[in-house]
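Module 6 notes. Inverse folding takes a fixed backbone as the condition and produces residue identities as the prediction. Think of it as a translation problem where the source language is geometry and the target language is the twenty amino acids. Below is one complete input and output pair. Work through it position by position during the lab.
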Protein backbone atom coordinates (compact mmCIF):
# COMPACT_ATOMS: atom_id res chain seq x y z
CA UNK A 1 0.00 0.00 0.00
CA UNK A 2 1.31 3.48 -0.80
CA UNK A 3 2.57 5.51 2.13
CA UNK A 4 0.24 8.45 1.47
CA UNK A 5 1.21 10.10 4.75
CA UNK A 6 4.56 11.14 3.30
CA UNK A 7 4.94 13.42 0.28
CA UNK A 8 8.54 13.62 -0.88
CA UNK A 9 10.39 16.58 -2.46
CA UNK A 10 10.99 14.36 -5.49
CA UNK A 11 9.80 14.88 -9.05
CA UNK A 12 9.89 11.68 -11.07
CA UNK A 13 11.06 12.23 -14.67
CA UNK A 14 10.03 9.48 -17.07
CA UNK A 15 10.14 9.09 -20.83
CA UNK A 16 11.27 6.78 -23.62
CA UNK A 17 14.90 6.45 -24.72
CA UNK A 18 15.94 9.58 -26.58
CA UNK A 19 13.38 11.80 -24.86
CA UNK A 20 16.16 13.92 -23.38
CA UNK A 21 15.61 13.12 -19.69
CA UNK A 22 19.22 13.49 -18.59
CA UNK A 23 19.91 16.54 -20.73
CA UNK A 24 16.84 18.39 -19.49
CA UNK A 25 17.41 17.40 -15.86
CA UNK A 26 21.06 18.49 -16.03
CA UNK A 27 20.05 21.87 -17.40
CA UNK A 28 17.31 22.24 -14.81
CA UNK A 29 19.75 21.51 -11.99
CA UNK A 30 22.24 24.00 -13.41
CA UNK A 31 19.74 26.81 -13.93
CA UNK A 32 17.16 26.32 -11.15
CA UNK A 33 18.01 27.07 -7.50
CA UNK A 34 17.64 24.18 -5.04
CA UNK A 35 17.05 21.56 -7.73
CA UNK A 36 19.27 18.49 -8.00
CA UNK A 37 19.44 15.77 -10.66
CA UNK A 38 19.45 12.18 -9.37
CA UNK A 39 20.03 9.16 -11.62
CA UNK A 40 19.20 5.71 -10.25
CA UNK A 41 22.11 3.99 -12.00
CA UNK A 42 24.50 6.52 -10.43
CA UNK A 43 23.06 5.79 -6.98
CA UNK A 44 23.63 2.07 -7.52
CA UNK A 45 27.24 2.63 -8.55
CA UNK A 46 27.81 4.90 -5.56
CA UNK A 47 26.26 2.32 -3.24
CA UNK A 48 28.44 -0.40 -4.75
CA UNK A 49 31.52 1.59 -3.67
CA UNK A 50 30.19 2.88 -0.33
CA UNK A 51 32.09 1.37 2.61
CA UNK A 52 29.85 -0.80 4.77
CA UNK A 53 27.00 -0.98 2.27
CA UNK A 54 24.89 -4.11 2.85
CA UNK A 55 24.07 -4.20 -0.87
CA UNK A 56 27.54 -3.63 -2.34
CA UNK A 57 28.23 -7.25 -3.26
CA UNK A 58 24.83 -7.84 -4.85
CA UNK A 59 25.24 -4.70 -6.96
CA UNK A 60 28.79 -5.75 -7.94
CA UNK A 61 27.46 -9.12 -9.05
CA UNK A 62 24.68 -7.69 -11.20
CA UNK A 63 25.76 -4.38 -12.73
CA UNK A 64 28.77 -5.60 -14.79
CA UNK A 65 26.78 -8.50 -16.28
CA UNK A 66 23.89 -6.26 -17.24
CA UNK A 67 21.51 -8.19 -14.99
CA UNK A 68 18.60 -6.07 -13.85
CA UNK A 69 18.71 -5.09 -10.20
CA UNK A 70 15.55 -6.11 -8.34
CA UNK A 71 12.85 -3.59 -7.46
CA UNK A 72 13.48 -4.32 -3.78
CA UNK A 73 17.19 -3.54 -4.07
CA UNK A 74 16.71 -0.42 -6.17
CA UNK A 75 14.11 0.91 -3.75
CA UNK A 76 16.25 0.09 -0.70
CA UNK A 77 19.24 1.93 -2.19
CA UNK A 78 17.06 4.90 -3.10
CA UNK A 79 15.52 4.98 0.38
CA UNK A 80 18.94 4.82 2.07
CA UNK A 81 20.22 7.62 -0.14
CA UNK A 82 17.16 9.77 0.58
CA UNK A 83 17.49 9.23 4.32
CA UNK A 84 21.02 10.61 4.15
CA UNK A 85 19.82 13.87 2.60
CA UNK A 86 18.74 16.94 4.59
CA UNK A 87 15.10 16.48 5.60
CA UNK A 88 14.12 20.15 5.54
CA UNK A 89 12.63 19.90 2.02
CA UNK A 90 14.61 22.91 0.74
CA UNK A 91 15.90 20.88 -2.21
CA UNK A 92 13.77 19.31 -4.94
CA UNK A 93 15.24 16.16 -6.48
CA UNK A 94 14.64 15.25 -10.13
CA UNK A 95 14.62 11.45 -10.15
CA UNK A 96 15.63 10.48 -13.67
CA UNK A 97 14.24 7.24 -15.10
CA UNK A 98 12.89 5.55 -11.97
CA UNK A 99 10.48 3.87 -11.40
CA UNK A 100 10.46 2.14 -14.79
CA UNK A 101 7.58 -0.27 -14.19
CA UNK A 102 4.56 -0.80 -11.96
CA UNK A 103 6.42 -3.04 -9.52
CA UNK A 104 9.08 -0.38 -8.94
CA UNK A 105 6.43 2.32 -8.67
CA UNK A 106 4.58 0.30 -6.03
CA UNK A 107 7.74 -0.35 -4.00
CA UNK A 108 8.69 3.33 -4.22
CA UNK A 109 5.30 4.43 -2.90
CA UNK A 110 5.23 1.77 -0.18
CA UNK A 111 8.76 2.24 1.17
CA UNK A 112 9.46 5.93 0.61
CA UNK A 113 6.15 7.71 0.13
CA UNK A 114 4.55 9.72 -2.66
CA UNK A 115 6.59 11.86 -5.03
CA UNK A 116 5.28 15.41 -5.20
CA UNK A 117 4.98 15.20 -8.99
CA UNK A 118 5.77 13.29 -12.15
CA UNK A 119 6.83 14.81 -15.46
CA UNK A 120 6.19 12.42 -18.33
CA UNK A 121 8.21 13.20 -21.45
CA UNK A 122 7.10 11.91 -24.81
CA UNK A 123 8.74 11.72 -28.20
CA UNK A 124 7.87 9.93 -31.40
CA UNK A 125 9.56 6.68 -32.35
CA UNK A 126 11.17 8.41 -35.33
CA UNK A 127 12.65 11.16 -33.15
CA UNK A 128 13.95 8.54 -30.71
CA UNK A 129 15.74 6.63 -33.47
CA UNK A 130 17.31 9.80 -34.86
CA UNK A 131 18.55 10.95 -31.44
CA UNK A 132 19.99 7.61 -30.43
CA UNK A 133 21.81 7.40 -33.74
CA UNK A 134 23.25 10.90 -33.28
CA UNK A 135 24.46 10.06 -29.76
CA UNK A 136 26.26 6.91 -30.86
CA UNK A 137 23.99 4.60 -28.86
CA UNK A 138 22.18 3.39 -31.94
CA UNK A 139 24.03 0.71 -33.90
CA UNK A 140 22.18 1.16 -37.23
CA UNK A 141 19.86 -1.70 -36.34
CA UNK A 142 16.34 -0.23 -36.23
CA UNK A 143 15.18 -3.31 -34.32
CA UNK A 144 17.21 -2.29 -31.27
CA UNK A 145 15.60 1.13 -31.01
CA UNK A 146 12.12 -0.24 -31.61
CA UNK A 147 12.55 -2.85 -28.89
CA UNK A 148 13.59 -0.16 -26.42
CA UNK A 149 10.62 1.98 -27.39
CA UNK A 150 8.29 -1.00 -27.10
CA UNK A 151 9.70 -1.75 -23.65
CA UNK A 152 8.88 1.79 -22.59
CA UNK A 153 5.31 1.50 -23.87
CA UNK A 154 4.75 -1.90 -22.24
CA UNK A 155 6.54 -1.29 -18.93
CA UNK A 156 6.85 2.41 -18.13
CA UNK A 157 3.61 3.79 -19.53
CA UNK A 158 1.56 1.56 -17.17
CA UNK A 159 3.76 2.83 -14.31
CA UNK A 160 2.93 6.42 -15.31
CA UNK A 161 -0.77 5.54 -15.29
CA UNK A 162 -0.33 4.07 -11.79
CA UNK A 163 1.42 7.24 -10.63
CA UNK A 164 -1.42 9.36 -12.02
CA UNK A 165 -3.69 7.79 -9.39
CA UNK A 166 -1.47 8.56 -6.40
CA UNK A 167 0.86 11.47 -7.24
CA UNK A 168 -0.58 14.98 -6.68
CA UNK A 169 0.68 16.41 -9.98
CA UNK A 170 1.39 14.59 -13.25
CA UNK A 171 2.40 16.74 -16.22
CA UNK A 172 2.94 15.47 -19.78
CA UNK A 173 5.45 17.27 -22.00
CA UNK A 174 6.34 16.62 -25.64
CA UNK A 175 10.11 16.50 -26.05
CA UNK A 176 10.11 16.23 -29.83
CA UNK A 177 11.49 19.77 -29.98
CA UNK A 178 15.18 20.26 -29.31
CA UNK A 179 17.25 23.19 -28.10
CA UNK A 180 15.70 26.15 -26.32
CA UNK A 181 12.18 25.39 -27.52
CA UNK A 182 12.19 21.95 -25.91
CA UNK A 183 13.87 23.31 -22.80
CA UNK A 184 11.27 26.04 -22.31
CA UNK A 185 8.45 23.50 -22.48
CA UNK A 186 10.17 21.35 -19.86
CA UNK A 187 11.00 24.37 -17.71
CA UNK A 188 7.37 25.47 -17.66
CA UNK A 189 6.28 22.00 -16.50
CA UNK A 190 9.05 21.94 -13.91
CA UNK A 191 8.04 25.31 -12.47
CA UNK A 192 4.44 24.12 -12.22
CA UNK A 193 5.49 21.11 -10.18
CA UNK A 194 8.21 22.75 -8.07
CA UNK A 195 5.85 25.55 -7.04
CA UNK A 196 2.89 23.22 -6.47
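Target side of the pair, the amino acids:
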Amino acid sequence: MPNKQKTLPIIVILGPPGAGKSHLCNRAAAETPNVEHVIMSDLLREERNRPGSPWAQEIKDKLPSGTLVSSELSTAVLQAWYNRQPQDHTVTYLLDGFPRNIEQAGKFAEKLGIAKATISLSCSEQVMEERLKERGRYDDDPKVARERYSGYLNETVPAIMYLEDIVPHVVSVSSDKQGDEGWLMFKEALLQTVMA
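Reference fact for the lab report: The first strand starts at residue 7 and ends at 14.
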